[in-house]
Amino acid sequence: METQYYTLIEKQDFFEIIENKYGELAIFVDARSGTPEDPVLQFDGKQTALLKRDAHLAVRLDNIMEETVEPLAESEFVMIVELKGKMVERIYGVPVENVEEIVFNGKQTRADELVKAKSRDELLKSFGAVKIWNNGEKNVK
């Protein structure tokens, strides 16, 4: 099993947001590998949303149309539809979190990718540390 010590943020260039007759929203994006774990959609109330798919991968949705802002901001949940070409790969519901601002910290690796290093605590948790020994100058007697 591969352990990632960073979070990858991929930009979704084209996506669709669809509303049904009940006012429910669905967002159609490209399929990613792996099963989502505790996914959530953060929305800044303007033009950007971030689908946090799992602890290692987030999908950035930029340039959300003005007409979509209010329905998205008012939604508690949206349905995410991941497509491989025109075929549905998976469907899942995610809660919508309205946030003041979405901050993209990290290193740009390509035009559509951002790598964000985890904090020390996040790294220790994902590493599964059970003991920590402090070494070096402070320990010399």
Shape: elongated
Total beta strand runs: 10
Helix content: 10-25%
Tell me what portion of residues adopts beta-strand conformation.
35-45%
Order of helices and strands: EEEEEEHEEEEH
What labels describe this entry?
12% helix; mainly beta; single chain
Give a quick summary of the entry.
The protein is mainly beta and 141 residues long. 12% of the residues lie in helices and 41% in strands.
Description:
The structure is a single chain. The protein is mostly beta strands. The protein has 2 helices and 10 strands. The chain has a 10-stranded mixed sheet with strand order 2-3-7-8-4-5-6-1-10-9, with helices on one face. It is elongated, with a radius of gyration of 18 Å.
SSE topology:
Elements lengths: L5 E6 L4 E4 L5 E6 L9 E4 L5 E4 L4 E5 L4 H9 L2 E8 L2 E12 L8 E4 L2 E5 L2 H8 L14
Parallel strand pairs: 1-6, 3-7, 4-8
Antiparallel strand pairs: 1-10, 2-3, 4-5, 5-6, 7-8, 9-10
